């Protein structure tokens, strides 16, 4: 029996080495522009590398049941769509249609989707079975695009993905729930990418980006794992309450919602790219990309820790909802007053405050 973690690590590492050499020939590179300040052409092979690492580990080390097989197929399709987007810059409509189809495959082929939102208001369980399919499709689209939008500086997507998968893995580790198992495999596959994305040893000369293929894969995998960990499905009983999902995806979801509302308020498309994300605000305030990465990652860990504490102690779901809603409002307040926040940080750096 091979170690799934070791297989995922080694497979991803080898995939990075192999795909990196073909990226330029295939045109799978990210070029600098007004929104992208990196130097030179950077291969967009992180997503494919992580995908190959995860799939190799699942094939060699897992029971290939229907859930695993359909996830691999769906993940493969979303990665393919992402690769096309990385190379040809697909329209928003094309991406959303592809994401919708992938979500539909998972839901209708397996029959597993969100049917219970938990006891959010201390008035009893909120069952949405008749609206569950639509709700789950919206959740899938939201997760995929949230992780896609947050991918703006080196290391950020990898770090936040590892934080999210860690939250799922920790609470399901004791009985090795399948959602925990798949999360551990993803963490192992993400580690080589994370090092390569930061351009540190042993990837100092092999810097790569995740690309849309990777960010969409991450979003799909996280929401898929959350469905199986928070709902009664074909794989068994839930291991966490549904409200915990908000703590797992907190930073990417907060950033996406706040940015979309800000764009809509300006009369712009909610999908129009800009430089108003939280990591951009930190950098405009004078912080380095590594400092922004550290602060945002620790913030995500802090929020996740609250969620884990709430699950372990069985804190009332109403209280957990109030806490995360308050954090969402605080985040929206900061984003809306971005320039005030930037000026505040610059005054601190100058020693005025």
From TrEMBL:
Tell me the compartments it is located in: Cell inner membrane; Cell membrane
| Protein's GO biological process | cell wall macromolecule biosynthetic process; cell wall organization; O antigen biosynthetic process
Recorded hits in CDD domains, A to Z, give: GT_WecA_like
Keyword list (alphabetical) reads: Cell inner membrane, Cell membrane, Glycosyltransferase, Lipopolysaccharide biosynthesis, Magnesium, Manganese, Membrane, Metal-binding, Transferase, Transmembrane, Transmembrane helix
TM annotation in the entry: 6-28, 40-60, 66-84, 96-114, 126-144, 156-173, 179-201, 208-227, 239-261, 292-312, 318-335
Q: Which cofactor does it need?
A: Mn(2+); Mg(2+)
What positions does the entry give for Mg(2+) binding? 148, 212
Q: How does it sit in the membrane?
A: Multi-pass membrane protein
A GO molecular function assigned to this protein is: manganese ion binding
The chemistry this enzyme catalyses reads: di-trans,octa-cis-undecaprenyl phosphate + UDP-N-acetyl-alpha-D-glucosamine = N-acetyl-alpha-D-glucosaminyl-di-trans,octa-cis-undecaprenyl diphosphate + UMP
Query: Any one cellular component term from GO for this entry?
Result: plasma membrane
Q: EC number(s) for this protein?
A: 2.7.8.33
Listed InterPro entries: ECA_WecA-rel, Glycosyl_transferase_4, PNAcMuramoyl-5peptid_Trfase_CS
Q: Which pathway does the database say it acts in?
A: Bacterial outer membrane biogenesis; LPS O-antigen biosynthesis
Give the principal location in a single coarse category.
Answer: membrane
Taxonomic superkingdom: Bacteria
Question: What functional role does this protein have?
Answer: Catalyzes the transfer of the GlcNAc-1-phosphate moiety from UDP-GlcNAc onto the carrier lipid undecaprenyl phosphate (C55-P), yielding GlcNAc-pyrophosphoryl-undecaprenyl (GlcNAc-PP-C55).
Q: Which HAMAP family match?
A: WecA_Gammaproteo
Q: Which family does it belong to?
A: Belongs to the glycosyltransferase 4 family. WecA subfamily.
What is this protein's record name?
Undecaprenyl-phosphate alpha-N-acetylglucosaminyl 1-phosphate transferase
